[in-house]
Automatic annotation (TrEMBL):
Lineage start: Bacteria, Pseudomonadati, Pseudomonadota, Gammaproteobacteria, Lysobacterales
Protein name: Ribosomal RNA small subunit methyltransferase I
Keywords tagged on the record: Cytoplasm, Methyltransferase, rRNA processing, S-adenosyl-L-methionine, Transferase
Organism of provenance: Luteimonas yindakuii
Pfam family, one: RsmI_C
Keyword Flavoprotein (UniProt): no
Main localization category: cytoplasm
Reactions mediated catalytically: cytidine(1402) in 16S rRNA + S-adenosyl-L-methionine = 2'-O-methylcytidine(1402) in 16S rRNA + S-adenosyl-L-homocysteine + H(+)
Subcellular localization: Cytoplasm
Length: 248
């Protein structure tokens, strides 16, 4: 029986591909990749010519069976996504579950993940946090999710793209209040890395004023609802938002 290695890859800086990740990617029989072209570019940089096969949301169920059969036959495979850690807002969950159900050893090669990278520099409480991934694209659904999170005491972490960052900050202000402390981590490990902190209102003002601050990839880290007074205010706002969502 082979092993399925789940390998984290860089979120920007290629030097973040660990020596062990390079060795595993070199030695496995094949690499399941979200986007084979993207992964081949990464592999080429390290002189690795292991074959890659495409595993994405739309074919994951179908491919999982074939991959598990290869693992059962003794091949070792790796799973990577385009950037960071597979399964974290990325495909792979169904393949890993199928492999585990078949009794295959699934072994991590840990490394970069934007959620942990952002938390590590945000300077917000991080012993406990809730990772919310991407918010819904539709405004009404997004506002509803944010309203539900308004009283959450743990630090909140969201992924966001450049298309929606301004709207998301505006919706967060409405749900959590202007003064809630937050951190905007942009383009981590890349040339234009910036980590801004301030109240949600101040962050939104910076993003609105500077188009460069709307470019690239973002992690938004928001401090949890604080003491009772904060929580009560947030609860009031949550109820208001839920009621407002029902109004025509
Ligand atoms: N699996 C990845 C991980 O472990 O971080 C996340 C994949 S998800 C499809 C992509 C999102 O992660 C981006 O939209 C952004 O929110 C975040 N992200 C990825 N790379 C980033 C970076 N260098 N700086 C800031 N955020 C990043």
């Amino acid at each position: 029986r082979g092993v399925l290695h789940v390998v984290a890859t860089p979120i920007g800086n290629l030097a973040d591909l660990s020596p062990r990740a390079q060795q595993v990617l070199r030695e496995v029989d094949a690499i399941c990749a979200e986007d084979t072209r993207h992964t081949r570019t990464l592999l080429a940089h390290f002189g690795i010519d292991t074959p890659a096969l495409a595993l994405h949301e739309h074919n994951e169920d179908a491919l999982a069976g074939r991959v598990v059969a290869r693992l059962l036959a003794g091949e070792s495979l790796a799973l990577v996504s385009d950037a960071g850690t597979p399964l974290v807002s990325d495909p792979g969950f169904r393949l890993v579950r199928a492999a585990r159900e078949a009794g295959i050893r699934v072994s991590p090669v840990p490394g970069p993940s934007a959620v942990v990278a952002a938390l590590s520099v945000a300077g917000l409480p991080s012993d406990r946090f809730t990772f919310e991934g991407f918010l819904p694209a539709r405004a009404a659904a997004r506002r509803e999710v944010l309203a539900r999170l308004a009283g959450e005491p743990r630090t909140l972490v969201f992924y966001e793209s450049s298309h929606r960052i301004a709207e998301t900050l505006a919706d967060m202000r409405a749900a959590f209040g202007d003064d809630r402390p937050a951190v905007l981590a942009r383009e981590l490990t890349k040339l234009f890395e910036t980590v801004l902190d301030g109240s949600l209102a101040a962050l939104q003002a910076q993003v609105d004023a500077d188009p460069n601050q709307r470019k690239g990839e973002f992690v938004v880290v928001v401090q949890g609802a604080g003491d009772d007074a904060d929580a009560q205010l947030a609860e009031g706002r949550r109820v208001y938002m839920l009621l407002a969502a029902q109004l025509p």
